């Protein structure tokens, strides 16, 4: 079954998994299989005044809706583009006296669209909203309690003059949001800023080692003339060669966890038992639990003790990060690494987690040389574990490259930036803001590398002078959040 711009994919029944998507033609790494605008989307409650409600970009100055005083937009173009979806919401917020939570707002936007268009297939959708999976029957007591509270809040917000929907159907919509809400990120892809429903993407099944990735594209909203004003959308991109008839899969969770942990997370959040090859055969688990080999191989008790110490330290680090106490974070990382290094192998995930935090926080504190050493070790471990075209890997390699560049290690820095650029060209595409940033860094570091190779002494002299005259670029403050996960789960 294909429809409106979705000719390259087909919905089919996947054995043991329900519905899935399969390719109708061949795709190569980096190809966009399809792009899909949101059926409905909202900005998170905590960010409503700093993120544009149309394109989900973070902006310094936003225009506020003069009617409801709640919605914010980049400019008039974004405001006009939003009006069809905001019109009902605007009057409902005024009537209600305040804006409800993001879940209620998203459910209302979905139901207003259904009121306008009917509950059948919308243009470009392979499956109607009615048919999306809701998993309400699998909800635990706490989730059912939250669902009842959401339905009650929704009924208080929903205007009496609008089409009325039954309790069961409203519950279905909240179930769909809970299981299929996709995380929207800002233009740099580094912070989760909202949640949306994309019915076609919902059909793609999970695999821990997928052949596709999803990137959120905020569109080109700088163009004032509406003919160039491209729409906010998600893009499903191929990570490897895909043949006609192959199932298209994405990963709902980050791969950097043991297969047992990934399966627990998938069962808890998405209510299914992962039966992918990597989980069934526990592939890469041996690398993620690697210990030092050779004559001084540590005992099982020593390994157990160091892993427990690592888990305890990670909890202390989270607390210190929440308090913004970054020097304490560095101290905890250094102490933990001293215990880990004689015992854990280079690809052990507990070692890699500490290396990742240490390199990020030290970069922020501008202790670049030590940060670069940890970042290099982290990337070496990641390259042995992750799929070669994994977006998280690309972002980690980029951070390591920038850290080396700031440390004055121009050869290693340029090499890592080039490697990151090659990965992100596939996962994000050439027009994504992050890829464009990387391309500028690649050109800059290539120029500096040529200067370094011609005259090393002059390169360091010029670098020293440049740093005296211009404050070195400060790295972003370390975030307590992980990179945005694919699907948004209400906390």
From TrEMBL:
Which SUPFAM superfamilies has this protein been placed in?
Answer: SET domain (SSF82199)
Listed under catalytic activity are: L-lysyl(4)-[histone H3] + 3 S-adenosyl-L-methionine = N(6),N(6),N(6)-trimethyl-L-lysyl(4)-[histone H3] + 3 S-adenosyl-L-homocysteine + 3 H(+)
What GO molecular function terms would the record report? DNA binding; histone H3K4 trimethyltransferase activity; zinc ion binding
Subcellular location(s) of the protein: Cytoplasm; Nucleus
Query: What PROSITE patterns does this protein's entry cite?
Result: SET (PS50280), ZF_MYND_2 (PS50865)
Matching PANTHER family, A to Z? HISTONE-LYSINE N-METHYLTRANSFERASE SMYD, HISTONE-LYSINE N-METHYLTRANSFERASE SMYD1
Oligomer status and interactors:
Interacts with HDAC1, HDAC2 and HDAC3. Interacts (via MYND-type zinc finger) with NACA isoform skNAC.
Protein name according to UniProt: [histone H3]-lysine(4) N-trimethyltransferase
Task: List the source organism.
Answer: Copsychus sechellarum
Q: What taxonomic lineage is listed for the species of origin?
A: Eukaryota, Metazoa, Chordata, Craniata, Vertebrata
